[in-house]
Amino acid sequence: MDTKVNICGVELKNPVMTASGTFGSGREFSELTDLNGIGGVVVKGVAAVPWKGNPAPRIAEVYGGMLNSVGLQNPGVDYFIENDIPFLRQFDTKIVVNVCGHSIDQYKDVVRKLRGQDVDMLELNISCPNVDEGGMAFGTDPVMVEKVVYEVKKDADKPLIVKLSPNVTDITATAKAAARGGADALSLINTLTGMKIDIHKRAPVLYRKIGGMSGPAVKPIALRMVYEVCKCVDVPVIGMGGISNGEDAVEFIMAGATAVAIGTANFINPRATADTVRGIEEYMEKYNVSDLSEIRGIIE
Fold first, then answer.
1. Residue 67's closest CA among 207, 211, 208?
2. Rounded CA gap, 121 and 140, in Å?
3. How many CA atoms lie within 13 A of 240 on its CB side?
4. So which residues are the catalytic ones?
5. DSSP code for 2
6. 226 by DSSP, 3-state: which?
7. Where are the domains of the chain?
8. Which of 40, 95, 136, 144 could, after both became Cys, cross-link 119 (CB 3.0–4.6 A)?
9. Looking at domain 5-294, which CATH architecture does it have?
């Protein structure tokens, strides 16, 4: 039974990764689960300079998931290079750096600083608000998607994964744009925009009113989008959105995903990644699947 997968020449021991923003740099979770058992750790978004994030309250529980408006709080790329890379290299897992920025130049600054560093892949967060275009997210306009990916790719010395926003009319349009721009792989979905109101206080629960929704409730939407994207591009796809266990992961693989990422489930069960790996293995054993390629993309 072989659970290994290959993304742009980078071999993962299994297809289970973490979703950026839900696992930090892995420090806290390393005390609760074995990072050696994860195919890859996708770290929280890394910016060119430290970001404070949004004011509280910035997390809210909702039916079937959660809303977050953390605002990509992070200590910056210099801190990440000095502290987090050495920590993660203690473990037998791949390191994927989620790159965030409010302008193309900010993205490029991060990627330049990561050149030559001991990481395996980069993930470009194009759901960041583009301050040069009035705050609209980079990932909602195919023209902008192609442009930002093309520009960032010039400075990348590692495979570039582009993380797609689901907050669009047609996700295949942005997927194709990212591929045209030079994306080596795609990951999806990022959070859906949502809102919660406290009827007793007569006010939004989140300070910024609107946040990103994730969790089990978004899985059918995420699965549909992964299926559509896998049918329209020739680059590897990492599926995410409401995955909580091995059965969920197998669904995404059958839809065409090369790998999967666990996000919100980590907050409910710190061992969700390990449990998902075991669940995939149990499925393969039960149905005599010797290699994941046998079931990948079998849904026509």
1. 211
2. 23
3. 30
4. 128
5. B
6. helix
7. 5-294
8. 95
9. Alpha-Beta Barrel (3.20)
